[in-house]
Design goal:
Order of helices and strands: HEEEEEEEEEEEEEEEHEEEEHEEEEH
Distance between the termini: 101 Å
Structural class: mainly beta
Shape: elongated
Largest sheet: 8 strands, antiparallel
Radius of gyration: 29 Å
């Protein structure tokens, strides 16, 4: 009997000690690296909130003093309200949604809104941050105190990383006309315990394209196939687009030589065009003003003659190396001299622009 009782006591003791050890290990074990958790330590569930279909309280970057409720469907919406003013309304759409983790806040969701007060010829932008679980608003980034037009977000650059919110914005210089900001900066924000505050505002390093050469692949760091955002990032300069980059549109880079333009199709760079007064040359030294004979002497049997519908002469340089397949430089001639040239894909360069 004593033998059986002792065995039972030992069994209970071992089970109790094992349970205590398991509990201690669970308490002391760190959270797995890379697994985002909110302030309560619960894994985020972004599907709890339908960010594209809900009502937000917005000021359209301080267009009004008190936030106005705006109901969005599929990320867009229109609203009228006494606070906006008589015979006025807002057209609002979401430009970007990002999820991440911030110190003291846990898992959050940042939403960038574009607001077009009507009637008007301008737009505003507003960046607000919410609890990922439940969607409760935490706060918004402060409006920029600038003397002229407000800077414009590059939506695709908005991100949450390194304990910060960050994005690229195009700022206006003193003499910049509306719609043509010339300064690209990286801006970061952090939560100070009460509100979001700006942490840094840094100019991006800019490439002087007047010193670069044109090839069938583009010009300098600008490569055929890049998105508009990638072109800005590569050059450190804002793009001004004459239309929607998701369709066919032409663009110019702030600070680039006058006469240098870029053509985008479905937000993809397809051609770089050079015309007067730009003095940029190809890698072989061909430029506006180069003669027909100089082109043939330089490119030999890799250049062919075509004629436009207007009867103008056009010379097409198509490298024979396999890696350049589909890429050309098209030279349009007037009076036996180059009037303009375009580098990029064959179809785009023969057109030259979207207009």
């Amino acid at each position: 009997m004593e033998h059986i009782l002792g065995a039972r006591i030992r069994t209970v003791t071992v089970a109790f000690l094992s349970a205590c050890l398991a509990l201690a290990m669970a308490v002391s074990a760190p959270t797995a690296q890379g697994s985002a958790r909110d302030a309560e330590g619960t894994p985020p569930r972004t599907e709890d909130v339908d960010w594209m279909n809900r009502t937000y309280d917005l000021t359209c970057d301080d267009e009004v003093d008190e936030p106005v409720p705006v109901t969005l469907t599929d990320g867009t919406g229109s609203v009228t309200d006494d606070a906006i003013g008589p015979e006025r309304h807002w057209e609002v759409r979401i430009q970007r949604i990002v999820h991440g983790t911030l110190p003291r806040l846990g898992t959050v969701t940042a939403v960038l809104f574009r607001c077009e007060p009507q009637p008007s010829n301008y737009f505003t932008e507003e960046l607000r941050v919410y609890r990922t679980r439940g969607g409760a608003e935490i706060g918004r980034t402060p409006a920029f105190d600038v003397p002229a037009f407000s800077p414009e977000f590059r939506p695709g650059t908005l991100e949450i990383q390194d304990d910060r919110l960050s994005a690229d914005l195009a700022f206006y210089g003193d003499s910049d006309p509306h719609g043509q900001p010339s300064i690209l900066r990286r801006v970061t924000w952090a939560w100070d315990g009460r509100q979001f505050v700006k942490q840094s505002e840094t100019d991006l390093a800019r490439t002087d394209l007047s010193r670069e050469e044109v090839t069938v692949d583009g010009i300098g760091p600008v490569r055929i196939g890049m998105s508009a955002q990638e072109v800005e990032k590569a050059t450190g300069a804002p793009l001004t687009l004459l239309g929607d980059a998701s369709h066919c549109t032409d663009g110019t880079l702030a600070g680039a030589p006058e006469g240098l333009s870029m053509m985008f199709m479905q937000n993809t760079l397809v051609a770089v065009t050079v015309e007067t007064p730009a003095t940029v040359s190809t890698a072989s030294g061909m430029r506006v003003g180069t003669t027909r004979d100089e082109l043939f002497d330089t490119y030999g049997n890799e250049i062919t003659t075509e004629w436009t519908q207007d009867g103008a002469e056009r010379l097409v340089f198509a490298p024979t190396a396999p890696r350049f397949e589909g890429r050309v430089i098209v030279f349009d001639l007037t009076g036996g001299q180059v009037e303009r040239f375009s580098a990029g894909t064959r179809d785009a360069t023969t057109v030259g622009s979207c207009t």
